[in-house]
């Protein structure tokens, strides 16, 4: 297909090639699925190159009609780059788009070699992503793509402080399927159930969540229960901490959960105590499900929660702030309900998948040189 004109012509038929590092059960992968689904519905032709195979989202993505190509048979970076180059040369897409920060370099180098517009991704706060990839490779992942799709305003500000030109940064908000994530028909019965979801590593601060639950249990006038969904390297130490805090009778380690929607509906509130975030899918899904969310004000979280209205925020590491917010919710059912109701309205208005497609459409026009305005 020849590129659409700058007179508003539809992008239908445009070929987009995505590059992903993994298709596991992460937030970036869920967002990839939403984007591919919207692009397919709009008539664009999408191919996905992936460094892994056989993971959670692969079957669901292929069921959309998207061709998935495994390009990670070897660990060698140069070999992978050559395989990606081969696939791009064979298919000649109109745009190459990376979905993970660490695959930006592959997409940018191979795309530039073929004269193709390239779009990279920033999924977290920029600083951690650069650090995790090493100073040299991290900087190249940030600098080489022509455009960067970023999921929070906070990350855009951080990228600018690293010298990235504002006109290459495009805010592409995370999408939530509001038909799948919806409020429970009635108030959950039994103890006040607090849910926390994520990978059990140091950044997610489940250790802080457990201390919050222990303190809340002593202060609240209602029974407290907590469900921790997820897995990771710190799970065994967290289970020991729960035992040391005498919480085993009220804390459940649920492990990985493939479908979180029912779990949101059986809970009263979500807590996310992370030290570092982008725009967490789990918060948006909980808000769409009508849950009151209590979270630390890190990364893009303040961009989706207005404290006291669509949720409650506390400074990073502030145990007392998290406890006090949850305590208010246990004491005031009307506040609990109104917070969840306003949260769902916010998500439905700002994060429904069709809204995200509109932003992508503008980004693609800019990448093709069709004069779209800035995305920031």
Strand order of the largest sheet: 3-2-1-4-5-6-7
Q: Helical element count?
A: 14
- CATH uppermost class of the largest domain: Alpha Beta
Could you tell me the strand content as a percent range?
15-25%
Low-pLDDT runs: 1-8
Number of strands: 13
Fraction of helical residues: 40-55%
How many angstroms separate the termini?
A: 29 Å
Describe what this molecule looks like in 3D:
The chain folds into 2 domains: 15-175 and 352-367, 3-Layer(aba) Sandwich (Rossmann fold), CATH 3.40.50.2000; 192-350, Rossmann fold, CATH 3.40.50.2000. Helix 1 (27-41) packs across helix 14 and helix 11 (281-288) packs across helix 13. The model is unreliable at 1-8 (pLDDT under 50). The longest helix has 18 residues, at 333-350. The protein starts with 14 loop residues before the first strand and ends in a 9-residue tail after the last helix. It is of the alpha/beta class and 376 residues long. It has helices at 27-41, 56-63, 77-91, 104-113, 127-132, 135-143, 153-161, 206-219, 235-244, 261-265, 281-288, 319-331, 333-350, 353-367; strands at 15-20, 45-50, 67-70, 95-98, 118-122, 147-150, 169-171, 192-197, 224-229, 251-255, 269-272, 292-296, 312-314.
